[in-house]
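Example record

One chain of 196 residues, shown exactly as stored in the release files.
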Amino acid sequence: MSTKTRIIDFVERELSKLNLGAHTLDHTMRVYSLSMELSKGLPINMRVLEAAALLHDVGRPRETESNVSHSILSGEIGQKCLRNVGYTREEIEHVVDAIRTHRFSEGIEPRSIEGQILSDADKLDALGAIGVYRAIAQAVTSGKGIQGFLDHADEKLLRLKEMMYTVPAKKLAAERHETLSIFVERLRNESGKSIT
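Predicted structure tokens for this chain:
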């Protein structure tokens, strides 16, 4: 069994505790794919980026009960898995740092290119058609409905385009932002909410 497969199996077991909302295994796999796409031609440590992308949300199921950010929990939880699959101490520290700095809401700047790529990939998955789907899933799961979706779009989603680090991510973000913007505007109009 490959190292990547072993990490995915670990992530799948951990995330099986969180089967609703926007941060399920399919999100993790999209972030992984986006990370691989964004990394093309850049001087990166692929082992670090792969592990960081796969493990970046593994702490989500424990976030609410522990009241600790999933970006901290994911790094902590992932360390044992990475040791078991043969990562060095230095690689693990690099992975943990990339995970720690990926989260939009904490405002911590990534300190490595791998961290920037992970941050970009995670934000890209919150834009476009898939971003709309995820935000609606989260609004339904949390019971916040249409207004909750619109508030989330205003507070976070519509700002993401300007927060990308890498050139390829900036291009993808512009395209996905347009899809999101059109949907938000139409939803406001159809639901009788004023356009802000």
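Notes: Residues 1-112 form a domain with the Hypothetical protein af1432 fold (CATH 1.10.3210.10).
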